[in-house]
Amino acid sequence: MDTQQETPRIVVGVDGSPSSQAALGWAVRYAGLVGGKVEAVTAWEVPGEASWSAPAVDATFDEEEAERLLVEEVRTVLGDQGASLVHERLVHGHPVEVLVDAAKGADMLVVGSRGRGGFRRALLGSVSQQVALHASCPVTIVRPDAADR
């Protein structure tokens, strides 16, 4: 019988918001406690791509620049030593679908909570709410500290 366990995989959604920065820090601290590895995932999609309202064209989007900004954000939040513990991924698609897919087989999915407020949230639902409903692993929703708001 093989008693060697696989390293826990923690997926964290990163979008540049204070909530996602808090989630990234939380995910790295948690991974340190459980001996896990962290995968920071950023989703991108072109406005109008998922609807019939406009052609899916965004001449200003630069994927290489977006990848550089993701790596830079991870370093800014965690410092060089903390960032070395994180694998960054930029993925094309809707954030909910990207995060739910990335979390398949993961031990935990961590996302920030950006509370949109009443009516708009009721109509659209937040990414954190949707991943909590659809992810196949436990989900932790992290709020930024009051001082960060």
Describe this structure in words.
By secondary structure, this protein is an alpha/beta fold. The protein has helices at residues 18-34, 63-83, 95-102, 118-124, 127-134; strands at 9-13, 37-44, 86-92, 108-112, 139-142. It has a five-stranded parallel β-sheet, sandwiched between helices. α2 links the parallel β2 and β3. α1 (18-34) crosses α2 (63-83) and α3 runs parallel beside α5. The protein is globular and about 45 Å long. The N and C termini lie far apart (50 Å). Mean pLDDT is 82; it is low at 115-124.
Residue runs with pLDDT of under 50 for 5 or more positions? 115-124
Q: What strand order characterises the main sheet?
A: 3-2-1-4-5
Overall morphology: globular
The gyration radius over C-alpha positions equals 16 Å
Number of helices: 5
What is the first-to-last residue Cα distance?
Answer: 50 Å
Number of DSSP-assigned strands: 5
Largest sheet: 5 strands, parallel
What is the typical, i.e. mean, pLDDT?
A: 82
Name the structural class: alpha/beta
Strand content: 15-25%
Relative helix content = 40-55%
Give the H and E element order. EHEHEHEHHE
Task: List the topology elements.
Layout (H helix, E strand, L loop, with lengths): L8 E5 L4 H17 L2 E8 L18 H21 L2 E7 L2 H8 L5 E5 L5 H7 L2 H8 L4 E4 L7
Parallel strand pairs: 1-2, 1-4, 2-3, 4-5
